[in-house]
Amino acid sequence: MVTWQMESLIPPVQQFTEEIMAIKVTRERLITFLLETPMFEKLVPSEIMEIIHIVGIEQYQAGDVVFREGDTGDAWYVLYRGAIDVLKHGATGEKKITELGPQACFGEISILDGSPRSATIRVTEDSVAFRIPREAFGELLDDDHLVAYKLLHQMAILLAERQRTTTLRLSELLNASEITEVHKGIMSIVGESSVRE
Questions:
Q1: Angle, CA 165 vertex, CA 43 and CA 101 arms, to 5°
Q2: How far apart are alpha carbons 106 and 162 in whole angstroms?
């Protein structure tokens, strides 16, 4: 894994290192990308500029582990490029419960409560992710940055939508007649909720 901090990229743009140029992440591209990502889509470019200094850029190779189930929830991520698997440990070992691609956010509940990770995230192809540390985000909240509160609000909306969807799906599973239907449904629900932690 290779990590860079966005604050070293802001102005002047000429300060980009060769490695960062290789992954082609400019300040403008980062802003555009985040504005197109559901968690950030309600923000305006000037608000993205308020948080860009806490965003780290992490580059992973296929097979790397971003974090493991049980690790401390110290940051959340937005996948910029590549693909990852979400794995859950069970009686028979790790099991893939879902996969994620670009613009997927994962681990964002750690911003709220710092609980241990509920799943392992393994990179399946060379990937780049943006990392937002819990501590730095907390400082934005402590300093009353409106953008931090807007992001918390957006997280709350997305979590409420997921909770409603989960409740509906669980209700539907109560009517399932086959145990395999129930098992598949529960695995899907667990997969979606584990991504957020």
A1: 55
A2: 14
* Domain ranges (residues) in the chain: 2-196
Query: Distance between CA 126 and CA 193 in Å, rounded?
Result: 24
DSSP state of 63: T
Predicted structure pTM score: 0.78
CATH of 2-196, one of 3.40.718.10, 3.40.50.970, 2.60.120.10, 3.40.50.1820: 2.60.120.10
Q: Identify the helix (H) or strand (E) that includes residue 111.
A: helix 109-113
Written as six digits, the tokens of 71 are 């690790």
- Burial status of residue 91 (CB atoms within 10 A of its CB: 0-12, 13-18, 19 or more): exposed
Dump pLDDT digits (tens) for 28-46. 999 999 999 999 999 999 9
| pLDDT tens-digit map of 79-120 | 999 999 999 888 888 888 889 999 999 998 877 888 899 899
Collect all residues with Cβ–Cβ distance below 8 Å to 154 and sequence separation of at least 6. Answer: 39, 40, 42
